[in-house]
Amino acid sequence: MYITPCTTPAMFEATINSCNQPRLVSVKFLLSLRDKAVHSLVSKQNILTKPGRRIKKLLSTETMNSTASAASVDHSISKLEDEPYLQALTISTLFSFPMILKAAVELDVLGIISRAGSAGVSAGDIASHIPTKDPDASRRVDRMLCLLAVNSILTCSLSENDERGVQRIYRLSPTGRYFVQQGDEGSAASMLALNAHPITMEVWSHAKDTILGGGNEFKKVHKKSAFHYTNIDPTYNQIFNQAMADLTTKVMNQVLQIYGGFERLGSLVDVAGGTGKCLAVITSKYPPIKGINFDVPHVVATAPFYPGIKHVGGDMFASVPKGEAIMIKDALHNWDDEHCIKVLKNCYESLPEKGKAIIINVLMPKAPDSTLASRYITQLDATMLIQLGSHERTQKQFEALCMASGFSEFWVADHLAYSVWAIMEFRK
Ligand SMILES: C[S@@+](CC[C@H](N)C(=O)[O-])C[C@H]1O[C@@H](n2cnc3c(N)ncnc32)[C@H](O)[C@@H]1O
């Protein structure tokens, strides 16, 4: 609410007590406040944190910008304040972000915002489209949206309207679009659903034990490893497979722009291929390829039909189907070296003379840096450590796996997909 006509502290108090909207008041008026009682009221209402503290016009930023004349407390760090402490506090409450984002995805809040397009929506508009009749829900939705805007999922602008006064209007950011269910385009919402699922979260709470003792924490907590657990919990199986299929869609579309090694292949086996999405992306570009999607029986049993692709159930540690080339995408990082070498030796056996195994996997940088890619890879490596007792690998480590499983030549493409995924060939 934008309060301009208050000219006395009493008038200000009456107005502020009657308003439920965000409290935005004119700079001029706040600067004119002298009354101590009003200062304490203002403090309680979260407008000013201390009397006389500097206030400034809300500046346009990437995530928040103002279309109405408005004022706010200056939240920039002054020399007297301790930025590392504020950063530590922010980290200590970081958890709220993925949990609120998960709730927004589950309530289709991002879908509602997406469908509103460039016009944007207010919290009130959204509250009228979610399953609640509680008149206070819009205020809670607004708080949820604020957190998402601060974390670059949404943009927020202020809009002034005669009937409703000043409102926050939200739109999806380019990152936020990836949390809307997008059919075939590769949503990240399904990966969030997997990572924030209670079954997965429970394992994280034992991270300290894994650091101290190693091993497969998922198995210790749930009595079965993740890939066996998916066999007894069809819902978790579906969530896991959807997360992988969505990720694979995006990654493989970029791999196909970088790498031409699938061209002219007559057949291709995808070992640990999930529900076949990876082969579906490849064969839609190269229709002559006959694809064999190989995974455990309870995963291929749920795989959809794709033209030119045969789903085969089995155990890659026992044997893998024969093909002109064999690929393994995002599966070697689920296993220790001993298991990887076993699978790779089986691939070697099933390949023709001069055949190749195409390995697509996240590549661990030699040293962590501050790039987004480095942050994602180290977060994923931590996920492998805690959930599966496995790890991401450097190029040198992949080369060592290649040689240890009998292949004679290691090759890696110059470019990484999304600065993260390497495309490697282990040649016979
Ligand atoms: C991280 S997912 C990768 C899926 C797919 N390659 C992709 O990138 O979308 C690992 C896959 O390995 C499969 N897997 C695990 N153990 C297996 C085994 N013994 N034999 C065959 N597949 C297995 C899982 O079922 C799962 O689909």
Care to describe what's here?
One of its GO terms (molecular function) is O-methyltransferase activity. Residues 93-181 form the O-methyltransferase dimerisation domain. Residues 204-408 form the O-methyltransferase C-terminal domain. The structure is a single chain. This protein has 428 residues and is an alpha/beta fold. 43% of the residues lie in helices and 16% in strands. The strands form four sheets. Strands 10-9-8-11-12-14-13 form a seven-stranded mixed beta sheet, with helices on both faces.
Short précis:
GO terms for molecular function: O-methyltransferase activity; protein dimerization activity. The chain has 19 helices and 14 strands. With 428 residues, it is of the alpha/beta class.
N-end to C-end Cα span: 70 Å
Overall pLDDT score: 86
Quickly count the domains: 3
- List cofactors, ions and other ligands: S-adenosylmethionine
Question: Strand sequence of the main sheet, in spatial order?
Answer: 10-9-8-11-12-14-13
CATH superfamily of the largest domain: Vaccinia Virus protein VP39
Largest sheet: 7 strands, mixed
Defining key terms:
Rossmann fold, Arc Repressor Mutant, subunit A, three-stranded mixed beta sheet, 3 domains, 14 strands, 428 residues, alpha/beta, single chain, globular, binds S-adenosylmethionine, 43% helix, seven-stranded mixed beta sheet
Describe the secondary structure blueprint for this structure.
Blueprint: E1 2-3, H1 9-18, E2 24-25, H2 27-32, H3 36-44, E3 55-57, E4 64-66, E5 71-73, H4 83-92, H5 96-106, H6 109-116, H7 123-127, H8 137-150, E6 154-161, E7 165-172, H9 189-195, H10 198-204, H11 207-213, H12 217-222, H13 226-232, H14 234-258, E8 267-271, H15 277-285, E9 290-295, H16 297-300, E10 309-313, E11 325-329, H17 337-350, E12 356-362, H18 372-388, H19 395-404, E13 409-412, E14 421-427
Parallel strand pairs: 1-2, 4-6, 8-9, 8-11, 9-10, 11-12
Antiparallel strand pairs: 3-5, 6-7, 12-14, 13-14
The protein binds S-adenosylmethionine.
S-adenosylmethionine binds next to helix 14.
